[in-house]
């Protein structure tokens, strides 16, 4: 069991760290290129693809310093894209390459294949790694930047399948989605502009789209869900919890 962990997001080079110790948690500020608080596990989601190889090595070195004990089995856990050339992943690879193009244009980052990830890990001083595709069927289903790739009709089909897969209403089954929610009233102008650019790219490249809250709500209701909660995250994305009962 992880006794102490750190999850972080970034804005430019600044670090926002969410630290949890048993049942307590708090945020601290800092710079991920300078130092990261000591932890049993560090969780990094959709961060490294925003940065160049050189900067990624710097970040990973700070992570390695923060989990110094190999004997205690401390780890860095990363959720990010891994490019593949396997034929059965052709459609998925096209979407990943589209993300690669966006990263290079918008933030000077990139998506990486396994060999490129391995190079970063070795340069940062790590000796082992394991990659597991993020396609998990469990009581808690996750949708990480998936639905914006698809039309409304296809999204409803996907959500209906999710509703069939989660536990019963009495057991509190949920679908957790991390995706963009357009909110021109609350977002700053540059954030809205970036989200609308993403919307244009989705429509052009993959026949998908970005959505505002009312459009998301319509999908959830058509798929048979009765409740949802949207929580903005750092950056462009929001956490959306969809359920059959109030959360």
Q: What would your notes on this structure say?
A:
- The structure is a single chain.
- The model is unreliable at 1-7, 9-23 and 135-144 (pLDDT under 50).
- The radius of gyration is 19 Å and the shape is globular.
- With 247 residues, it is α/β, with parallel strands linked by helices.
- It has a 5-stranded mixed sheet with strand order 3-2-1-4-5, with helices on one face.
- A hairpin with a 4-residue loop joins strand 11 (227-232) and strand 12 (237-243).
- The chain contains 6 helices and 12 strands.
Descriptors:
247 residues, alpha/beta
Secondary structure class reads alpha/beta
Mean pLDDT: 77
Flag low-confidence runs. 1-7, 9-23, 135-144
| Residues in helices, as a percent range | 25-40%
| H/E series | EEEEHEEHEHEHEHEHEE
| Biggest sheet layout | 5 strands, mixed
> What's the count of strands?
12
Which percent band covers the strand fraction?
25-35%
Radius of gyration: 19 Å
Number of H/I helices: 6
**Widest β-sheet, arrangement of strands:** 3-2-1-4-5
For the termini, the CA-CA separation is 25 Å
Q: Which outline best applies? A: globular
């Amino acid at each position: 069991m992880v006794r102490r962990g750190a999850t972080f997001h970034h804005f430019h080079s600044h670090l926002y760290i969410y630290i949890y110790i048993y049942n307590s948690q708090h945020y601290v500020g800092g710079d991920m290129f300078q130092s990261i608080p000591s932890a049993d596990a560090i969780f990094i989601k959709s961060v490294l693809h925003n940065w160049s190889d050189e900067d990624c090595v710097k970040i990973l070195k700070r992570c390695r310093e923060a989990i110094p004990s190999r004997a205690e089995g401390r780890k860095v856990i990363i959720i990010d894209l891994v490019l593949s050339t396997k034929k059965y992943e052709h459609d998925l690879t096209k979407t990943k390459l589209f993300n690669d193009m966006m990263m290079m244009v918008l933030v000077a980052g990139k998506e990486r294949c396994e060999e490129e990830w391995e190079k970063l890990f070795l340069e940062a001083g790590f000796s082992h790694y394991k990659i597991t595709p993020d396609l998990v069927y469990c009581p808690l289903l996750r949708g990480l930047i998936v639905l914006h790739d698809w039309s409304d009709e296809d999204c409803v089909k996907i959500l209906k399948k999710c509703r069939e897969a989660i536990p019963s209403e009495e057991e509190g089954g949920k679908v957790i989605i991390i995706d963009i929610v357009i909110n021109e009233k609350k977002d700053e102008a540059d954030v809205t502009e970036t989200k609308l650019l993403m919307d244009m790219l989705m429509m052009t490249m993959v026949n998908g789209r970005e959505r505002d809250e009312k459009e998301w709500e319509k999908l959830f209701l058509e798929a048979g869900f009765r409740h949802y909660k949207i929580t903005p995250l750092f950056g462009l994305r929001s956490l959306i919890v969809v359920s059959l009962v109030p959360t």
